[in-house]
Here is the input.
Amino acid sequence: MEKITSQESPLIDTPTTNLQRETEDECKPYFIDTKKLTKNQIDHLRELGVVSNEYDKSFPLSEYICLLRSKHLDYLQRSLLPKESYCLSKSFISLDASKPWIIYWCLQPLDLLGAMDTDGVSSSIAASSTLPVPTTPFLKEDSLIGIVHTLESCWMDIPHRLQDVDSCCYTCLFGDSDDDDMSIQDMPTQCLGGGYGGGPGQLPHCATSYAAILSLCIVAGCDTYHYPLATKLAQEVLFRKRKPLYLWFLSLQCSYPYIPDTVAYCMHHDGEIDVRATYTVLCMASLLNILTPALTRGVLPFIASCQTYEGGFGGEPHAEAHGGYTYCALAALRLLTASPMSCSSSTHCIHHQKESSSLSPNTTSHDLLSRNIDLDALKGWLVFKQKTLEGGFAGRTNKLVDGCYSFWLGASIALLNIIEKCYESSHGENYGIVYDAGIQEQNEFWISHSSFEDNEQKNNSYSHHAMETSLPTMGCDKDELLFDRTMLQRYILLCCQDLNGGLRDKPSKPRDFYHSCYVLSGLSTSEHVLRSTNGDDSFPVYGDCKQNLIFATHPVYNIRLKHVQQAFERLHNMVK
Here is the structure.
């Protein structure tokens, strides 16, 4: 065998290696040594908004790189305007079946940027910020009311026959009978369920229903002072749709071929079976307080069967490991194992009592997952998806960097780290993210090394708003995330921003709503989740902290933390 010299590449040129080399060459100009830039070049970057006007040449230019907030806000809000004010281009006809998605893809990043807030940024930096503080929110209430009505037009009722209804869980949720021993035979066999389709008159689908529920939770959680009608309308819709959604979820359950004793979900009636459906159903059910054992029984083995030899998860058993499916699997596993199910608060739920009694009281989510999942292989697969030169993530092995995986893989790593962090710090899961409606949710993501009891005592004094703006007190002694935050944020800010607003996959790709949503969600995750405080109130923010720090998104639900907590408090208290 001939010895390879240091000048020779050990790689054989293939279409894959050529594309990777082209992508690296595409990104390299954005990582140029800023010391080599002339004054005219820096002034030009200032005019474009990429560099802060406060630039001081005595400090590195990288400390003044800016998020183009105003341009992103302008780009994202257009699709939410009435058609008399703005119409999408004809090319969007291909997304006719994705109306709820377009709403969510625009509403979530707008929310992270503070478009529905009067402070716009975290109050922890507002005092020192030079940004103008608006007195009214960026987004008008008419836009939010229009969102709710548009989503309502996408709803479709689906009559179907349920062969096996868990009457105990059903009664605990909806109280249709005063008889604690109501049998399955007493339940109506012809039930009117339903979900959200991609547009008016279209078949209900898990993906578009997921986007619709998240969008409604965002609207319902907005400031009632500035959005009184929109928030009330969204809250009423969420409460009214709980029962038909629950019945529809049950009708989507199916067994996966060749894997006994498993329960999976299909994306729609007679649709594909994959881990996306499982995650979206569990996510919606959790937010709506209808996550019962009837929905979760047998789901864990199906998710576990989707793990591949590489360590990541495919959409179904024996499929290739993929960043998006891995996120769905991890988020679903977190929902399954983090805390008691919603109907556990009722003494009527015999099924839950039996299932709970089979688990040790000291069982943690880490214990449950380690019995079913190869966590070490998963960790290895995840960390190797961050590209060495670009700093962003690739969705699969030997694939190119893509900005959207800033969230899909960044949040996956965060969730895995959270599971391990909880295991190491507390060996207890009584402050999980699923059912606990208290401020304890903070502990999950900004855990300090002090005891849980100390953290709980401190956090109970915080207001709802302080939950997001007081995050510096809830950090770690060292950075706990298994990816390079700085490299990821550098890729987002330098390679993914379109100078006219909006975010993109990579420099050679056009901007779009989808990438704007998930790139900014990934930026939020890297800025907030399990960050190190190092004894101060600093955030791990690349570039200009005053411009680039955005609100924290929940790594399981991917909406802001306050909306998750408000959904828990509103719906969990309303149904008691």
